[in-house]
Structure formats: C-alpha cells, structure tokens
Amino acid sequence: MNRSECVSVTNETFLEQNKTRRKEYLYRLLANTTRSLIQMEIKARRLEENMRRIKEKTADLLWKNKDKALWHILFKNISRHVSIRHQFHQHSSLTRIMQDSKGPGYSSPLDAFKNGAREKLLYVVCVQPDLTKQDYLATVDVDPESPTYNQVIHRTYTGSVGDELHHSGWNVCSSCHDNPDLKRNLLILPALHSAKIFAVDVGTNPRKPELHKVIDGAEMKSFNCAYPHTAHCLATGDIMISTMGDKNGNGKGDFILVDAKNLKVTGTWTKGDKIAKFGYDFWYQPYYDVMIASEWGSPKSFTCGFRPEDVPNRDLYGASLNVYKWSTRELQQVIDLGDEGCGPLEIRFLHDPKASQGFVGCAVEANIFRFYKATDGTWKAQKVIDIPAKTVKKDGEEFKLNGLMSDILLSLDDKYLYTSCWLHGDVRQYDVTDPEHPKLKGRIVLGGRVVNDDLTVIEDKEFQEMTQKPVYVKNKRLYGSPQMIQLSLDGKRLYVSSSLYSPWDKQIYPKMTEKGGWLVKLDVDIENGGLKLDPDFLIDFGSEPNGPVLPHEMRYPGGDCTSDIWLVKE
C-alpha cells in the first residue's frame, strides 16, 4: 500500500470514527432530552391541557429533529469547528421546552397570566355549622367540557370535628420554580379552632384528593402559637403559617414553620424580642428584604362573633401593618392605619417581584390602603379607596351600615384590584394601573344585609340604591353575601363564595347558615372593565350529603392569584 492509499484509509477511518462519535453523542443527547421531557410531563399532569400540548409538540420535535441530525451525520461532512449541540439547537426549539421544564408554578406572574392553563378544578374549603360533623375539602368541576361540570365531585373529610377550616396554601409554589425536584402536590389546610394542620394529597389523583397527614394542634401550641390563618411556601422548602393568638386565646402575631418534606413543625419564624400584637395575613417581597403582615384582633373577641363594642378597643382589634426585615426575621416597623384602617385583613403586594407597593383591605370601615416604600427606606400607607357607609333602618331605629370589606385580590398583570364587601353585598373591580388613584370599573350586588326583609336603606351616598332585590341563580336565592374571591389566571373568570367565618355567619346571616352557602362565577371584561353574573353556574352547598355547609377559600391545582409569590430571577 503506497503512502497516498494509507492517507486515504486514515482519513476515511477518522471520518467514520468522527461520525460514530457524533452519532453516539446525538443519541445520548436525545435520550437525556427525552428523560427531561418525561419528567416535565409527570410534573405537569395536573394541567391536562398543557400536558396534551407538550406531548404533541415534543413528539413532533423529537422525530423531526432526529431526522435532521441524522441527515447531516450520514450525508454531510459536519465541520469540526461547529459542535453538534449547537447544530441541534439551531434546528429546533427543544431548548426552550427544556428550559420550561422546571419546578412548580410559572416563571413569572405574566407567564402565568399569558400561558397558564384554564382552571378545570376548584378546591373549596367547607365548614360544617353543625359541630358534630366534619369539615372537608370539596373538589368542584369547573371544566365546561366535562360531564360533571358545575358539580361537587369529591369530598375529602378531616376525620375530626370542631376544626374550623379557613384558609389554605401549598407545600411549594412558584417561589420554588427553579427547583425541578419539588412537586406541588399537597394542599395545606390550617384549622383555625383546633390548630391542626391538614395536608391533602392532590397530586396522586387531582379529582379525588386524599388526606395525607394531620399535624396535631399540640405541635403548634408547644410554641405558644394558635389560631393559624395564612399558609405560604418559602423558597427554602419550608411552609410558613401565620398565627393570630397564643394557646390561651390572647392576641399574638407570629409565624409557624413546617418542614415541607416531613411535615413537622420546626418552630417559629420570628426572631428578636418584638412580637406583633395581632396577626392575620402576610406577603413577602425578598427583593426589598421585607415581609408585611396584617392584623385581625384577639381570638377571645372575634371567636365569639362580631361585637361592635369591641372594635374601638385596640387591645381587641388591630389597626396596623407589621413590617419585618426578611433576612433577619425581625419586626422593624409598625404602621398605624388609625380608625379608618381598623381590621386590616387581606394583604397583597403587586405580583411583580420588583414592586415596592401593594394594597390591604381594612374590613371595619371598608377602606383600602396602599402601602409603599418611601424614599427614606421606611414603609408608609395611604388610603386610596373609601367605601362610604349606608344609613339603614331596622325596627324604627336608624344606624350606619359599613361595608365590612372581607377580601381583596390583584390580577396577575397587576391591572385590576377586586374586593368584596360582606355587609353591603357587592363585588367591585378597580383599575389600579395608577395605584395611587384606583378607578371603579365594575360592580355587582350578590346579596348582603341590604336585601334583608327587615332592613330599609335610608341613605346611599355612593349609588343612591334605596332598594335591593334578592339575587337568584338557577332558581335559588343567594342568602348571605359575597365573601372570598378567586380569579382565573387569565383574569377572565372570578369565582365568589359566601362564608366568612362560621361564628359570624351564624350571627349575621342565619338564613345562609340554615340553607347553606354558595359559589358563583362572574365573567370579567379585562379590556374595558366590568363584571357579569353567569346565570348557569351555581354550586349549592345547601344540598350537600351531610347537610348545609359554608364554603370559604378556593384554590386551583396549579396555583392561583393569591397562593403564589414570585421571586426576582438571579
């Protein structure tokens, strides 16, 4: 064999080996990609619509791009200076899909707003007014294409009585989006009266959740904390739950930590000597090293019903926002909202993780305050919405009827603020594009004290509504009033439930307690503003198997406008 023949054989051998190596590398890349995509499908199985789209797109891309890559390997001399990885990325959009295969939730609020799947299930906390029966989590089918649409399809009972389920949260949420090892599969239900924490498995079978674990109330009380309220997940893998009192029923604002892996109470979050006088809701914004919490009052007062004589007593009802330094967990500032800010309940930072402002709904006087970071580094608050009281008459006696603002939430694009007034009976939509000057864009009345047969409106400064007729949906009268609200990710559907807190329900709306609460849907005009009642959607909780129940907070399987907190990407 001459030299030229040797060189030819050497070149052919080199090229063949090079092709083989590249081909093997490509197959390894495809195998790794396939595994990543399979993991992504498993994590997204609760979002059936997205899962179908991803499956179809993945199959198409894998087949097409495999053909392209093999075509280049077999019939073209790929340059040594261009990596196969680069070629593969140039010929497909698979890189983007792989980047989306991350942890729970969405990468940003706008990602959820624009790309989030339509809700198909609602998990609704239901409280039994009959204390000999169990509270439960109701699974409601809200998929218009489903044969069980507009029905309660499953009930997950607590297994005990006297718990008073109230709010709910997740084991993980969008604050953990960058961790692909975490799964949003447990709904966390703190019980206001028993101090138990119920973890419900909604991942194994989203349509039939099962009770996964019960954390006994003694664990929380061992840290002198009780009356748990809001649950949020933290990026650390912990679950944080706000508490409103000590084990004896005195007011105390603190936070319990639960390890999300083993579901054990590990202690309290707060450090330092300062403890808030009262507790209720909270929202954190790590970009500004801050967490802000709101206040209700002393459990010794509010668990006995609504007593107007207790409201002016600042040892029984709160009127402040408590500002914590996030990194040190210390209470650094208390913002006194005054009498007009009595009972600051639901607190919402803007969803934008770089926003330094938000809103809090103050129940008693039905006002909304905007809180914000001032130029001097402190946090301040200003009243931006004031819903005036109505003058009413009952049994010949005139008195002022405040709105009692019980819930607020923000759309994921931070354009609209929604609120409910539990005594006036209306749901409102405000455009908060200019947060200092909200504009009322939509309003609908769904009940309230003003439709009671024994109450007459004498003066309505805002709308001059002197009479208000009862509201009927599917031939059922809505007794009670709108209370908790939950917005779809795209902002087009607002779900409304009727129960505030069972001792107050029994006192203020005994007919609702007797006949059962309800859940309705409002269609939202997100372009021009406006709310419209869907006449064909009603969940009647007066027709439940164990008697009438009281529906409170609502969640979607994949997170929603009030459960998830986003962090600034590094």
From TrEMBL:
SUPFAM superfamilies, A to Z: 3-carboxy-cis,cis-mucoante lactonizing enzyme
An MF annotation (GO) of this entry: selenium binding
Keyword presence, Coiled coil: yes
Family named by the database record: Belongs to the selenium-binding protein family.
Entry-linked InterPro entries: Se-bd
Keywords assigned: Coiled coil, Selenium
Domain of life: Eukaryota
Organism: Papilio machaon
Matching Pfam families: SBP56
Sections of the chain in a coiled coil: 30-64
Protein's name according to its UniProt entry: Selenium-binding protein 1
